[in-house]
Amino acid sequence: MYSLIDIQKKLLPDLLAVMQKRYHILEYINQMQPVGRRSLAVSLGLTERVLRSEVDFLKTQDLITVASLGMSVTEDGRKLLVELRSIMREISGIVKMEQQLADKLGIQRAIIVSGNADEAPWVKNELGRATAQWMKSSLHGENIIGVTGGTTMSTVAKMLTPTKPDQNWLFVPARGGIGEDVKNQANTICSQMAENTDSKHRVLYAPDEVSKEMYESMIKDPNFTEVLHLIKSACMVLHGIGDAITMAERRKTSSENVKKLIAANAVGEAFGYYFNEAGEIVHKIQTVGLQLADLTAIQHVLAVAGGGSKAKAIAAYMKRAPKSTILITDEGAANQLLKG
User: Fold this and answer.
1) CA-based nearest residue to 300, from 136, 95, 89
2) Helix axes 37-44, 48-60, angle to 10 degrees
3) pTM of structure
4) Which tens digit of pLDDT belongs to each residue from 251-300?
5) How many whole angstroms separate alpha carbon 189 and alpha carbon 240?
6) What is the DSSP code (8-state) at residue 235?
7) CA 183-185-190 angle, 5° bins
8) Per-residue pLDDT reduced to its tens digit, 31-66
């Protein structure tokens, strides 16, 4: 039997196209408000004439307000967006794409949010929101959550809200990160996550890359080994997936090693491991904290990465990821991954 949406797709495809367009305009205004018309037109790839018509309609329906500072979504507009999100996922075929992507990558589940993080900055917020919602729905009782650094994890932290009464969380950095931009260090992100969820956190004072001698010296400190034990005991790990060369440059990797990565066709990075398109490890840095092999013993592994430009990095890492992995990504990356 056809669903109502299937019938509309066959008999009223233009109606659904208009609905999707207006939804995306309303969602973008909601994420970027207050936003000007010209900026909105450029971001959405629409002419100002077309956008003006749509903005006038949304204003007439009391879904947005227009002021000198820009456009903003009204309370009615916000309520409508909440109700529309699940409907739009079905209309756009995202629900079906999620199953196809999980099957293709051989992982537990894929969660796809609308948009492409390469083109619209608000999509990264949606990745963070989807991650926060999954955490809230999956974790009960006392839980240790390991978190890596990076801009995506920083966005996840912003989207977290206070835990429920039956949730008691402890955030720990999954690996060292001193030396990176402070706001993107795992220690900083754990602190933000704990603050936003009314939880606790621990810190790991260790650089992103260490020598063997430094590591052996550090493990003599009981405080250090205690945090390492907590990290290994995590029931959930949140991590990003990086473009190989971008991550190497962020770590201030020597030009010699960058050349080696390029020669080895490295495309992705996670946990200090660099992968080529076949998923082979072509380089590894000595890091403190979780290693790739540790992930198989962790119940919930959430990999968060979006944007079509990340597709090769995601595909490469997923060839090594544990089967329990849940990938949270966007349409931009998902479409590229499904095309292969």
Assistant:
1) 136
2) 110
3) 0.83
4) 888 889 899 999 999 999 999 899 999 999 999 988 888 899 999 999 99
5) 13
6) S
7) 95
8) 888 988 888 888 777 888 888 889 999 999 999 999
Structural domains for the chain:
4-91 (1.10.10.10), 94-339 (3.40.50.1360)
Beta strands in 29-73 (DSSP E): 64-67, 70-73
Q: Are 106 and 320 in contact, with CB atoms under 8 Å apart?
A: no
Contact in structure between 281 and 265 (CB atoms under 8 Å): no
Amino acid identity of residue 128, one-letter, is G
Collapsed DSSP state (helix, strand, coil) of residue 143: strand
Compute CA distances 133 → 88, 97, 220, 337, whole Å: 18, 20, 39, 24
Q: What is the DSSP string of 312-327?
A: HHHHHHHTTS-TTEEE
Q: Which two tokens stand for residue 340?
A: 């292969």
Give the full edge-to-edge strand order of the sheet including 273-276.
Answer: 242-243, 266-270, 273-276, 281-284
Distance from C-alpha of 26 to C-alpha of 77, rounded to nearest angstrom: 8
Residue 281: phi, psi to the nearest 5? -80, 115
DSSP 277: T
Amino acid making up residue 234: A
Contact at 8 Å (CB) between 307 and 117? yes
Q: Which two tokens stand for residue 158?
A: 């912003």
**8 A C-beta contact, residue 270 and residue 242:** yes
Question: E strands of 177-320, at which residues?
Answer: 200-201, 236-240, 242-243, 266-270, 273-276, 281-284, 300-304
**CA 241, 245, 246, 250 torsion: positive or negative?**
positive
Q: Coil, helix or strand for 81?
A: helix
- Number of residues assigned to the chain: 340
Q: How buried is residue 33: exposed, middle or buried, by Cβ count under 10 Å (0-12/13-18/19+)? A: middle
